[in-house]
User: What shape does this take?
Amino acid sequence: MIVAIGRELGAGGRGVGDRVAQMLDAELLDNQIIDLVAARIGAPAAYVQARDENVESFVDRLFRIITSAYPEAYAAEGLPDWSEERMVQLTGSIIQEHATGKPLVVIGRGAPLLLRDRPDALRVFITAPPAARVARLRERTGCSADDAAREIKKSDQHRLAYMQQYYGVHWRDPSLYDLIVNTEHLSVDAAAKLIVEAGRTRSA
Assistant: This one.
């Protein structure tokens, strides 16, 4: 079984995905993707993490930094390709490579779109009302309600833009998913059990 999860910040998607992977004894691809992409393009993981599921351009700025620091060492044609497009392409390749038939849980990065043609893939969207998301983010980070709301708004905008730019879809479109889970009144375990049961029913 493969579970491909889309999620909103503060809805608990990471915890639920981790629990689903434990229940299925499955490989988990979440932040691990950052290290895998960084290794393939030869970039620091911090660069990839800062642009994960993001559409902010940094290639020109990176080019200026590198060439100004080492003008004699770098020609334009010798620079590595650290573009967002390259990162997205590699992310998709890595997800497809790991979707080999063994149990797998993938969180975000367009996985529900990338794996939409897989009959063994359950596509899940994890959501919660704004107040619940703010409360959960505050509990996790200790930030203020205003800061949590700003982070959630920024995350939503980035994920929406990412999915529109690279996959041509609206991130929250329910037709993209087989199951939508509202975690407002569900624990991590309860949500994970619901997803696993849905996946097993689908596979049966």
Notes: The first strand starts at residue 2 and ends at 7. The chain has one domain: 2-203.
